[in-house]
Amino acid sequence: MATEVKPSDLAVGIDFGGSGIKGAVVNTRTGQFMGERIRVRTPQPSVPRDVVAVMDGLVRSLLEPLVGGEGPLTAADAAGLPVGVGIPAATRGGTTLTAANIDSGWIGFQAEREMSLAMSRVVAIGNDADVAGLAELRFGAGRYQRGTIIVLTIGTGMGSAIFADGRLLPNTEFGHVELHGQDAEVRVAESARDRLGLSWKEWAAGFDDYLHLLEKLFWPDLFILGGGASKRSDNYMQYVTVKTPVAIATLKNNAGIVGGALIAIDKRNREAMSGTGESIS
Ligand code: BGC
Hints:
CATH topology of the largest domain: Nucleotidyltransferase, domain 5
Structural class: alpha/beta
Distance between the termini: 32 Å
Strand order of the largest sheet: 3-2-1-4-7
Bound molecules: beta-D-glucopyranose
CATH superfamily of the largest domain: ATPase, nucleotide binding domain
CATH architecture of the largest domain: 2-Layer Sandwich
């Protein structure tokens, strides 16, 4: 294989969102993509069987151009790459437990098992915000930062991840705390701005209240803002008044893909060490 990239460092990362499913082959040593980043539409309704089929096709489309001829991978390299998927749901032991902005068929779905069977390769799943947070801590705005860090992904839903000295407490679901008497993400997700017809200033007022609520409960050392709205931070950062430092995710909307690749490699390595071929998550 060309240059210093080792196939054993490569994984496919997939970010499953309400409107799009994005993926890339990632060098997990550097967080860089190898080849194209591809986005396909999320099937509507987003029933698990259809979404898994789309992801399988996506993985093939990502790997095909990298194999054979001038491509940097052999067919065997490509066949061995694990896949990691960030899903907008709480997850435990490879099963998705909730479905706030996706089809209710994901509740109780053995996602890791079904995806792994469909793709004939190691598949790891995690909550999308947890996975994006892992990437930001490894390669992005949270690099070299200790203490308590809250990563928020502001998109169709409001995702959260909390880290203490680099260690993730998974499945926090802070998007669903109560704010102004309602589920917070209904007011503070990026999708709420369009749905409610809010100006950036109006949206930011609610978002700032939300940050104050989290600040008062967790006293973090840093907030990192990611997701789709991280690309438009110039529109609202001037209205953010919390005392906690606030950083914008540097991997922007790619954090979910990079983080997916990180959990994939982690699972593959754990399985290799345990020698069982079974998930121990
Ligand atoms: C879901 C979370 C997810 C977030 C961002 C929320 O509605 O409950 O699991 O992380 O949206 O996608």
